[in-house]
Amino acid sequence: MVRLHCLALILTVSACDSPGTEFAGIPPVRVEIDGSTFAVRRKGGEAQAIRLNREYRAGTMTRAFRAIETGTGCAIRPDTLRGDPAVAYARLTCSGS
User: Residues with Cβ < 8 Å from 73, sequence gap 6 or more?
Assistant: First the structure.
């Protein structure tokens, strides 16, 4: 029974949209890219994309890259995308900002 409760908790948290402290309080922009759904937040010249759906396929970082650019309207600075398939971060170049 304990294992079942732990599994339920893990599945609940895995679909969570909880930003890190540096992006707390910033409302997300929800972006869907090729079947992957992300919550994108921008703070100044940086952005975070949290994948909201469970998936087990390659290319998640590429979709996170596109989600950040789509959700912020900014270009990702070269070689600044980092993170993992669940949460990605990038530095931005935005015109007019």
Answer: 94
* 0.90 surpassed by pTM: no
Q: Which CATH class is domain 17-93?
A: alpha beta
> Using an 8 Å Cβ cutoff, are 64 and 49 in contact?
yes
Ordered by start, the domain boundaries in the chain are 17-93
- Cβ neighbours for 70, distance < 8 A, ≥ 6 positions apart: 31, 33, 40
Spatial separation of the C-alpha atoms in residues 40 and 53, rounded to whole Å: 14
**Structural tokens at position 59:** 């290319």
Distance CA 36, CA 10 (A): 20
Place of tokens 């396929």: 57
Residue 3 confidence (pLDDT):
57
